[in-house]
# Entry
Amino acid sequence: MARDDRISSELSRDLSLFQITMMGVGMMIGAGVFLGTGKSIGIAGPGGLILTFALNGLVAIFTAMSYAELSSAIPRAGGAYNFARVAFGQGPSFMVGWMEWFASSVAGSLYAVCFATYMVRFVTGLGLISLGPTMSSVTVRVVAAAIAIVFIYINYRGASEMGRIGAVITLGQTLLLLMIGAIGVAVAVYDPERLKNFHPFINHETGGWTSILVTMGFTAVAFEGYEVIAQAGDEAIDPRRNIPKAMIYSVFAVTVTYVIIAFATVVAVKAGPDLLIDGEIVAPWKWIGHYGGEGFGAAIEKLLPGWGAIIVTLAVVFASTSALNATVYSATRSSYALGREAMLPPIFARVSSKRKTPYVALLFTSLIVIFVATSLNSDQVAAGASIMFLMLFLVVNICAIRIRRNMGDELHYGFIMPLFPLLPVAAIVCQCILALSLYELGRTAWIIAALWICTGLLVYRLYSRHHAIVGEGDVLVLEEEPAAEDGGEYRIMVAVANLDNALSFVRTTYSISGAMKARVELLHMVPVPSHVPLSQAYRYMQDGREAIGETMLYLAPLFPISSTIRYCRNVARGIVSAVRQKRTDLLIMGWHGRKTSRGFDLGSTVDPVTELAPCDLLILKNCGDHKYKNILLPLVGGPNSELALKTAAILANRNDGTITAFTVAGDGEDLSFDINAFIASRVDALDLPLARIVTKVAHDHRTAHAILQEAESDSSNYDLVIIGSSREPLLRRVRRQSVPDVVAELCAKPLIMASASSGLHSWINRWL
Amino acid sequence: MNVTDTDALVGIPVIILALSILMYLVAWSRRIISRISQRNLQSAREIEKDLRNGS
# Structure
């Protein structure tokens, strides 16, 4: 049973741009870079190490662009969960939130373990205590649980407290790493011999350039900070500006820091006879790589003898605690968002009245963090978390494309990415490649990921789908009358917008429906204002029901016909959704002929429908219930002209209707389009003799002007103009306004715009 | 010229190119966020149109 009562809860809005940027940086510079540096240099070589971080930064900023755009338009706690909710609805969004919660919680427990491991090693290294292997393992887990509890308490104290402490810790760790980087650069300047450490640039013993894909795979997790920034939507000051900025800045800052650190690591070790592995002298990069996860620490100890161990321990302590802080915050907001939408029990959405923090969501997140930190094999669970993070990022990139395409006119954006949709597509391709490289992490990670996903599916099936709140953006079918079973295969949908002239509008379409032996569906969208809850939508549909009923009475004896009345927040989105769902072949809709909204060429409904409807489309302007005797048909070739010709042949009067096929060539130019051949090759498919189609060519460099002049000429006396539409958004980017749009806007005669669906474009529109 | 020299000749420009693209995207993003805010643009269509017409 769907519930439409709202759970009232609110978080305090006091995180500044600096604080949320530092949260992102803090989550990124976690254990990943310390463990990843040594492993990467061993696999990819010294140049490969720097390439790994530089290219990973590039891939990360592609996804960060998607996150930034979506977060600016949907600035609410929940991050990827919210984006999936808006783009795909309840089921997929629950799974995204579920994976996000687990991935962040487990990442938090890993940071706690990382902190504990280095602290215990450091203390035992000083000789203050002595622990056997068993006691050492137990102590690590106790310290991990203790540090997790400390940061859970800090999160409970509130976003401001958490943000302030987290920002200070992150700033400290970043400065420390930059200091190490600066020392490395200075050493290279004073001792240029160390630059020879970059020889060979790539390690060809492990696959050469392809080995960089593997190292990018396991260090990708060190670039995931934008997820935690997205979670701050409810708590950031001026989120539409600050959240995108914080995401972009944090990825940039982290990438530059990593590249400098990687450079410092390579030059930190001077080549010499003391670099021995199994009694053999090796190159510095091989020596660092030999230490694996501890390679970074070993290199820095060479760079700063005596102080290196302390500095590395300090850096790891700072990095682990800030990442722990950020991941606990992120995981808590994921489960809070699920609770807020009643996908999980509403208790998850409870907010402390004093601290303004979601304390119940924090409590459950804490249980996962502490349980994993104290009892499970962290490496494999972390690998599972990495797989889920990559899946999340992949979904977010798909969401960015889908939401901009389908809801770009409705949302209030504070940022949009350049080169849309190339950047998210590039990110998706890169994420697929990195996910494949994560297969190296072993089967257990995939089993853990699959187990958590299966559990999520079970929770959704047994609880969430019965309790979830119906979202504001969901399309709802209010009333549906099924069609008779004996209709044809061809499906025509007639979108009825203006109820006052619904009957006359539908009459003009029935000659088309009859010629195509089609099954006809009437669609009326009921736009309900965003402030009106779904439960009240029925109040808006009474008029629609009467008009549709009257029209049905007229058409039902003539064709197999059905009707649907749907609620939607946005009419264009509702129409496109219905066309996709019903697998419509031809959509017929009306246009009043006026531009009413800024930013649109024809209108806020016609433009998006023209761009997104995955079917043929006819837009009727001022078309009454006539038999047309003289139709003007401007042609340029292509599928739109073909549909226009087909429509003209259907609408022309059977007895004496004529069509004037018209085309325009530039002044003094030869005609590149052979209009006679175009018609001759298609006339067999038309129910009109060739003799009734005349052709005409005008010479004018102003195409729209020539068409309008011809349409309005008294001598020709046209009673209808049918013109192929330009539905390609790319074309509209090149030209300020297309010729068909200008003609449609300025032509005083009845007019039809024809827009044919075409292969790939139609497929993309149907599925995305 | 051996293979490692070629690797460096390809690798170093790739690193510089990656960091340059990163910097360009950061600068572009800063500019677009300010522009959207100053001109009180809202929908993606409005913003795209403003970028096409007024850049």
Q: What stands out?
A: The helical segments of chain B are 3-38, 44-54.
